[in-house]
Each structure stands twice: as C-alpha cells, then as structure tokens.
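Regression test attached.
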Amino acid sequence: MSTADALLNVAGLGVGYVPGIDILRNIDLRAERGKVTTIIGPNGAGKSTLLRCIFGLLPARRGTVEFAGSIMEATAPDRRKLDGMAYVPQHHSTCPQLTIEENLRLGGWLLRRRKPEMQARLDEIYERFPVLAERRRIKATQLSGGQLRTLAVAKELIVQPRLMLLDEPSVGMSPKVAQEVYAMLAALPSQGVTVLLVDQNITDAVAMSDSVYLIAEGGVQRHGTGRWFTENISDVIREMLQGA
Amino acid sequence: MMPQSSMIDLLSATRKLPASWWPNELTPGVAAALATAFLPLMLNDYQLQVMWVAFYLAVLAISWNLVAGYGGMFSLAQHALATIGGYSSAAAVLALGLPVWWGVVCGGLAAALLGYLLGHATLHLRSLYFAIATWVFAEVARQLITINYEITRGAMGLQVPYLFSTLDPIAYFYLFLGLLLVAFGASAILLRTKLGYRIQAVRDDEELAIANGVNAARAKRTIFAMSAGMAGMAGAMYGHAVGLLAPSQADFSQMSLIIIAAVLGGYRTLWGPIIGAILIQAVAEMLRFSQEGRLVIFAALLIVVFRLYPQGVMGALKILATLLRRRRQAEGKTQ
Amino acid sequence: MQLLLQSLTLALLNGAIYALMAMGITFIASIMRIINWSTGEFYMVGSFAHLALLTVIFPALGLTLPMAWLLSALLAMGLVFVLGMVVQRTLIAPMHRPGTQAFEYATIMTVALSVLLQNGAIMIAGPNQYSVPDYMRPILLEDLEIVLNGSRVASGLAALAIILLFYVLLYRTSLGLAFRGIAQNRLAAETAGLNLKTMDMLAFGIGTGLCAVAGALLAPVFLVHPLNGAAATMKGFEIIVIGGIGSLGGAVVAAFGLALVEGLGATFYRAELQQLYGFVFLIGFLVFRPQGLFGHRERRV
C-alpha cells in the first residue's frame, strides 16, 4: 500500500489527557482511499481517543496527522470539517429537541449559504434513508437507537465528506439493527466516502473491512487485511484477551 | 525577609518530617506567626490596626476557602454568616447579659447552626442553584437585619461592648494573629483527617466518591457548618473589636472582597487566602482615596491575575519554583 | 375596571422588558452553561450608553431625529454587544482550558467584573441619578378613560418588537438553528463544523446586548444610576429561576407572569410589597422546584 493512496496518514502519534501519562504512544496508521479501515482492541486501549485526536478534538503530543496530503494543524475541528473529514461520536451525537430535518440542516451547516445545494443534498439523504424521510418533522428524542444512529451518519453525509470517522457505530443495538448499520457503512466507499471505524464487535466489523489495526497498550499490535483477520480471528481474540 | 529560594527550600524540607497529625504546612505557619509577633515593635498604632483587619479578612478567606476551594461548594454567604455571628454575639451580650467572650462563642455557635441548616436546605442543589441560593440567603439576612431596626438599630449600626478594656490596637493585633494561626492550623489539620480527604474526593468527583462509599451529603454539611462557625466567631470578634455592627457588613461587596482575597492568593491552597488578604489590605492602604477606586483596583487585579494564573499568587510562586528548580538542575548538569 | 385594565396593560409592558433581560441571561446560560453574575452591570452600562448617546452625543452632532430614543437604545445595544464579545474572548473563554473548572472560573470572573463595572461607573459618573427625556407623551385612551405613561408604552412596544425579532433569528435562520443545536448538544454542533469559540463569543454578546437594551429602554422609568445593576440582577435571577434556567420560553412566561403578579399586587393589595413577590417566588422555587417551571434535568454532553 503506497502512501499516495492513503487519504489519512497518521505517523508517530502520541496522545494523552493527563500531563505525563500517554494513552497512545506511537501510532502509525493509514486509511486508504475508498476502503474501510477498522480499529479493534481491548477496552481502554485509546481507540476513541485516537479518533478524537484525528478529528482535532484533542491535541496530539507527538507525531502528525496528514489528511489528503496536508498536515493538520492542532485542534481545529471546524477546519477539518471544511477539508472533508466527518466524525460520528459514540454517544449523544444528535440534538434531542430538534427535528430530523433540523438535525440534518444543522449537519449541513457548511452549506447554509447555498440553499439550492442544501435542498438537493437533503433530498438525496431522504431518498437514501426513507426511514428518516418518513419522520422528518419528528423530534430526535422520539427516535429509536437504530434510527438515531442512521440520523447521526446521515447528518454527516449531507456535506459529502471524504473521510468518515465512526466510534463504535453498532454499540447498544440489537444484532439485526447492527447488521443494517454495517450494511450502510459498507456501502459508503462506493459513494466516495473512505471509512475509518472503531469497533468492539470484532467479528462483524472485521468481516466488512479492507484493512484492520489492532491497538492495545498504547500502540499498534497488529495490522493486516480484513481477510487475514477473519481467518485468524480466534488467535487475534486470544491475544487481545491475554494482553488486556 | 527570607529570600525566595530559601523559603522554597524550607517548605520542601518540612515535607521530609515524619507523617503525624502535625501537618507539614503548620511549621512554616507557626514560624511566620512568631516572626509576625515581633512586628508591633516596628509599626505604629494605625499600621497595627490595618494589619489586624487584614488578619480578620484572612480568617474569613480561609473559612471560605474550606467550603469553596477544598470542598467545591461555591458559597456566596460567607460574609453574611460572619455578620450573623456578630449580631448573635450582640444578642447574647446585650440581651442575655453574657460576658463578651461568651458572646463570641455564642456567635460562632449560632453561625455554625445556621450554616448547618442552610447547608441542609441547599447543598443538594447543583452548583448553579447553590450559588444563587446562598446569595439569596445573604440578601435575606441583610434585609432582615436592616428592617428590624427596633432590635438591631438597622442601618445606623448597633453598638456593642469591646473585647478588651484597653483600646490599644496591639491587643487586637495579637488577638487576630492568634485567631489566624488557629484558623490556619485548624484547616491544615482538618485537611489531613478522613473528613478532609473525603470532602476533597467529593469536590473532585462527587459521583465517584459516593460510589466509593463516601457520604457526600454529610461531609459537605459538616464542612459547611464548620466553615460557618469559623466565620461567625471571627465576625463576632471583629464586631467586639470595632465596637459596632452594621448590616452593610452583609453587602455583596464584602463577599466579593473575600472571594478576591482568597482567589488572588490561590484558592485551593492553605497560604493563598492569607497572602491574598494581606495583599488586598496593602493595596487598600495605598489607595485610601476612595472606596470605589479601591474596589475597582481589587477587581481589576483579580481579573488580571486570575486570567493569567487561575491558581493565584501561590500558583504563580509554584510555577516560579519549578522554573528555578529546573534551572538549577540544568546548571548542575553542566558543571 | 379601568384600574384593572390600566394595571394589566402596564404589567404587560413591564413584562416585555423583564423578558428581554431574562432572555439575555438564559441565552448565555443555555449556550455556555454559565451564569453571568455581572448581568445587571451590563444592563446598567446599556442605560449609561443610551444616556450618553441620547443626551450628549446626538445633540453634539446636531441630530434631531424622530424616535431618536429608539435609535439610541439600539445603538447602546450594539455597543454592549461588542463589549460583551470582547469580554468573552479575553476573560471568559479561558474557562475551557483543560484542568479549569469552567463554572467556578466563570463565576469568579463575572463576580469580579460586576465589582469592576459597578464601582467603575460610580467613579466615572458619580453616585448620581440621571434622567432621560420621556419617549412619548402620555397616552390617553378616552373611551376607556385610561392614561398611560408614554415612555412605558414606547419602551414596552420596542421590547416586544425586539423579542419577536429574536425569535425570528432563533427559529428562522441557520444561525439560530446553530444556537439551538449548541444549547442541546455541543459535540453535535462541533462535528457539524461550527466554531464553538466564535459561537460562545456571539452568544455572550447577544445575551449582554439584550440586557443592555432593557436598561436603555427603562431609562426614563427607573433613571440611570450605577447601582441599578444590582436590582436588575436580582430581578433577572428571580425570573430565570421561576421560568427554568436554560428555557427561553420559560423566561418569557415567567417574566410576564411576575410582572402581572407585581402589577396587580401593587394596585389591588399593598403597593410597598411589590418587589417582594419575585423574591418570595425565587426562594419558593429554589426550595421546592429548583428547575423552575420549564427547566429540564439536563444531561451533560
């Protein structure tokens, strides 16, 4: 995999919250254009922290984050959004008292001055997600877990990002709903969106991935293709359980 | 005056004392108090009075620091509790005929009791509502004192007997110096008790503390009542030192003085409130020209210092100490 | 009957201005999750700015305009809007520094600010009361036999207009949508590409601006005095606790409600107790229902 194909290139990243204690020590990671890259690892390994740092919600102590060829400046999420990055956090990523349509329009903040474009994108989203179209005037607080996750993804898609970061998109959902979410995510690359996701659900996530990273104890323990991980899944799980 | 680096050395040397009930911080405190005890040789009567007023403010700031800095309870009623202590003492002395010193004790107890009740009524509220509730309490206290002028002489002020038969400020200087030492010592010791650790745990993360078995509500009420008692007793002493009580002592500007003193010095430290209070009094004396001008300078000073060093003067000193230590280490390496 | 009508009308007009102030406080509280303890002082600064513009600067520039008072009040609002943004950017924004307790920082800073502004005003303008010429001649409704103070009518109507405009901003523009989103979920707003620093700054400016224009509009009624801020803060806090901190609708309802109770109480019961009602309600709500009428138990994001 050449660096030229990598939409996202993380090199030597070190991140932490408390001074003196690093959660992540030396992370090298690449997300290839048009592919699905998954990060797995035991709880507390820092996977969510990694995503937050890539999106600019947390400053990096060492190393660089390179996106679409440019090095990202420290802590500027609105800048990264402009450049085409999107981030779907694990919890609470929609505004409960706003309707679906309002949530989507808020997601389309960058398009707020281009009304025809905004309307066109909205229509696209409604076509792709009839679930949302039916409930467009309903407040988000009345949606089910799966619908909320769909809304969270949809409101990022409305500005057609190049890279989408997702933190445990299937958490707290029934297996059937989780499958629908994964199917939706698997379809994204064909629509021009590169996907980088963090997941606890190893088997399902790995099955749909092109590239997988196992992060534990602050560093990248393993890296390989999705197929390799699927074939060696039991070894990987054993390693993770022993290491954690 | 001790040079800065030696003070820092002394402070770090005391950290090597064996663990006991005697807190490390108390040694320099006692030393400072002893050194200060010689000041009356150098100062005139007026300056002595300025100093003991500073000590009084320091005690109030220490008591507020207990609830707000170490306890995480942002109370805006400290000044009112001190005032209530004063008026309670007056009630005990004037109405019940108790000797003045017993009055002071009564003042402290009354304030502690009221503090406990106030805490009971408000400490379960979120910090926002708690702050407003204590603010309202202080305002109600002030209004009640002003309105019931038949009893309290209202805004004209209530005359109360003096603590000492002499009017020599040196007596009050040592009185308030002693009170300050006791307050400082009490908070230093308190912070090392189980209650002290518990309340700091509650301040840092209340849910986590409760999950670890701490009775957060009781700890908060206890600390709040203790702090109220300290403020009340100090307020009673002040009243009998000045000879006059007034509802204006419960004005919000008085609370802001306490906050400014504590925060300027460093409001989560033991020394901070003392340093802040002395600083404030020093500035006040330099700017005797106007009441408002003083407050403007205090507020501006706090804004600037707090903006740059939220840990106050103590915080700035710690940063300085770290820098000096690093420089010395670097020099040691190159030698 | 006339007495009732007169009282009601007055109460409604008062309520509009109360609502402006309360909305200012609650807006900042819902966006930034802090209480600005110098709210009243911004009200006071607004009234002084208005005083200076209307009685000194406009005449000095030779401007005689119809409804000059309205222009002056709006300009005062604009000036305090800018002042508020500057204050937020320089003094309050650091509350988000890692390791800083945001609420405590903001409280200490705004308390200090309130002392600074109040005493600064006394130093500059003296502890004097200044008056502003009436906005309108008294209005006489012959059929109903009611006489209404012209200034109160004018300022009340202006306040209503501003409230309406504010609602239009909040519910019909993308900026308003952004503010509503931030109030509900800061993270969601941030992932949408909003610059929270800028939004906080704007919110503080708008909030203090609303308080300032309330002060400006009430200038002929309550006169302009450096210590007016304290009463304004008290009134504002009463209203938002009753209405529920964080609820704009609650602030408006509580404002009109309180104005009605005060007005009717003063007319038909005992006039000297007028300011007490709000106080009693404040204490009552704090004890029995701190989240107010419309506040919700919020979840932190």
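Expected vs. actual: identical. The beta strands of chain C are 139-141, 146-148.
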